[in-house]
Amino acid sequence: MAPASFELTGEGPFQRFIVRYRADSEPGRDKAAVPARLERTAAAAAVSPPPQLSWQRRLAVDADLFTAERPLDRQAAISLMRAFDDDPDVEYIEVDRMKGIDPIRPMPMRGD
């Protein structure tokens, strides 16, 4: 088995994911095709029972946000992500995480 091209940090639970399909693939061209592909990929994952995945929206980066109906532990998330990683139409799969920057530090006021 080839090494995974995704990274999963933390123990979970994991429930929100982002997948980007190749632009020339059916789900990459047409977001209406994504829900059926999500269902097919969930069925192919080694998770019992297979999670029910719900497409949420297409993001500005042309990736799709989806959720699992139940939180997944680390092993279930890895199995699901590996199923996406094995799909030749998938560019990448990642957990949807809150991303941010360091807190804004107040700048000292200049005295005139």
UniProtKB/TrEMBL annotation:
Protein name: Uncharacterized protein
Origin superkingdom: Bacteria
Source organism of the structure: Luteimonas viscosa
